[in-house]
Structure formats: structure tokens, C-alpha cells
């Protein structure tokens, strides 16, 4: 695909961070790990990857703002644009030697995500999209699945850990979704869950208690692959509500309805 200058610099940054992460992943037992909260860890590799991404993006576009998982938010001289970055989505997988994690980079313009990259270095899969330009996996065009029967569909979600307050609602969600579908997977990397919806590997995804950097790039990739992505609570914004539901158009209303019946106002 032919990407814009912004998308090309995003891909460059994602690949640079990915190379660094893969190198440390091979020596995962020797990583220096510090606790960042119950069940949530940050590694030296995570911080180094964010530094690489930030250096490349901010050198190319020094006036843009910055929102990253591992650093303070920075307001740019251009108030209409900011980078939204998770340098290592799936940190727990990474630290346990499981090869399912990604670098996620999004560009937001006037409150809307206009470009997104999700790079899985362990599998050398680069998912990307620009608003109006479609979604891609490496050099292949992406399209969400066309399954229309819930009982044939497989979904992804994130399960709360460490006593997070979204556990009761998520358990209620599972009680509605599991009996009506072919299954639910919890693979521990939100950016890849959304990328897999875009690729038709999952038919839908939902999660409560997410952060912008978890889903910013992935939600655009889903939409550009022909899927729908909204906040679980209708009429609200994904980042505002810290929640998301995404699926192909054929099942979206049914799937979202299962979750919305259990949502608090």
C-alpha cells in the first residue's frame, strides 16, 4: 500500500520499537522488571521501546502532542494533532515469554483517529490503516468477517485482573455472550484483538476499563476494514467511557445489544 508521510513515519517507529522488543524478548528471563500495580508490570524493554517511538515521531512532527502509556501527556504546539502510543501492548504476555504482544501507534486529528499502526514483531505482522484508505495486513487488504449467525462467531475480550472494578460487569457480559456463540478468547493484547477483528480472525471484541492507547489504532483499523466500533454505552465516546465494542456489521447490533442490556447508565 502507498501510505502518507505520517503513516510511513509511524511504521518506521513501530518497526524500530519492535526490533528492540524482540531482542529483549529472547532474553526475557533476564529483563529487569518493576511493579506498576497489582498484576500490571512495566519492563525496561517497555520504557526503551516507548523512547524509540517517541524519538522518531517527535523528530518528524515536533509540533504534535503526545499521549503514551509510560510517560506524561504532552500538549503540542499544534493542538489539533497528537500521537497516541502503547509501546508494548500485552506486557504480561511478553514478560511470561508468550509471543502475543504488539506496538500500537495512532494519530489523532481534531479528536478523531486518522491513522493507526499495530505491529506484531513476533509474527512479523503489521496492521495499518488511514481514514478513508482501507486497512492492511502487510501488503494484503483487510476485511472483517461476514459471519451473520452468533452461534458461529468467536469473540475476544479482556478480563479484569488485580481487583479491577469492571469484574462484575464483565462476568455478566460473559454470561450473556458465551451461551449464544462459538466461544470467547482472552489473549491479553487489546490492540491485536482489534486487529484480528479487522482480519476476520475474530468476529467481534469488547472490553471495559480500557485506555486510549489500548484501542486507538485498532479501532480505526476495524472501521477501515468494514467493521463497526463504538462505546458499549450508546451515544458516548469510546475514550470518554473507557470501553469498546467492535464487530462486523452483520452481527454488531445483536452483539452490542447483549452487552448494553447489562450496562449501567
Global Rg = 17 Å
Shape: globular
CATH topology label of the largest domain: Fructose-1,6-Bisphosphatase, Chain A, domain 1
Helix-strand makeup class: alpha+beta
Q: Given this structure, which CATH class of the largest domain is correct?
A: Alpha Beta
Spatial order of the strands forming the largest sheet = 3-4-5-6-7-8-9
How much helical structure, as a percent, in the residues? 25-40%
Taking pLDDT < 50 over at least 5 consecutive residues as the criterion, the unreliable ranges are 37-41
- What order do the SSEs take from the amino end to the carboxyl end, as H and E? HEEHEEHEEEEEEHEHEHEHEH
Distance between the termini: 42 Å
Note the main sheet. Answer: 7 strands, mixed
Strand residue content: 25-35%
Mean pLDDT: 91
Number of separate domains: 2
Tell me the CATH superfamily of the largest domain.
Fructose-1,6-Bisphosphatase, subunit A, domain 1
Based on the coordinates given, report the CATH architecture of the largest domain.
Answer: 2-Layer Sandwich
Q: Helix count, per DSSP?
A: 8
Query: How many DSSP-defined strands?
Result: 14
